[in-house]
Amino acid sequence: MKNLELKRISNEIRKGILTAVHSAKAGHPGGSLSSADIMTYLYFSEMNIDPSKPNMPQRDRFVLSKGHVAPGLYATLAHRGFFPVEDLVTLRQLGSYLQGHPDMKNIPGVDMSTGSLGQGISAAVGMALSAKLSGEDYRVYTLLGDGEIEEGQVWEAAMFAGHRKLDNLVVIIDNNGLQIDGNIENVCSPYPIDKKFEAFNFHVIQVDGHDFESLAYAFENARLIKNKPVAIIAKTVKGKGVSFMENNAAWHGTAPNDEQYEIGMSDLAKVGEAICQ
């Protein structure tokens, strides 16, 4: 898929994120918006998936380790055809299948229930190991927050993945620099992220997480790496696309009110117009 079309899709996904969180009056827009381009590339260019067969055994797997950015995953799945886009407004509503965190039992396209930070990568490592043991060729992708990697379980999983040479595993770090309590460097710095993953026998690729050419380069190169898992460190902007949310930790887990929603949707409409020119 051409980069221009990917930009258009990711902008629609951002609109879906904002709409879902506004409707729910709760949720996590900041990290959903920062990772929207990454999830767009995964679901529209990279992964072997089929929305009409969400559980096909040979599909690639995706684990949203930072499960609180479920609005981003749901908007991506909806636009990819796993369920109706119109259902996004039911996020966190009583009786809705779109819960506040991903639920693999009830949401088409969700490969793992997540929410407790640090645990998703362990599940992804298990999936990758399973593929190796059973001789399957599917690949496993997992998206982590840069604040999330302060969790010790992340590094236990990384140690195991590197030791077992799981070259069918791609760990993506959404490096937007902010977590719920502020700047990650001030809370509990995970830097240098690249050296840490290299120490666990990962091949590391650093990219601009909003540039589709860079993302294509990263994921294409990840497929060429043998006998090592890959860590893609994607530099992003928290709240990307919405003027008052960008680089503002206050929007980690805050829903916009009606006026803010209108401003945000206007911002994204302007982005869409620029893409079409």
Automatic annotation (TrEMBL):
Keywords: Thiamine pyrophosphate. Residues 8-259 form the Transketolase N-terminal domain. CDD domains: TPP_TK. It comes from the Bacteria. Its cofactor is thiamine diphosphate. Pfam families: Transketolase_N (PF00456). Belongs to the transketolase family. This is Transketolase. The lineage of its organism: Bacteria, Bacillati, Bacillota, Clostridia, Lachnospirales.
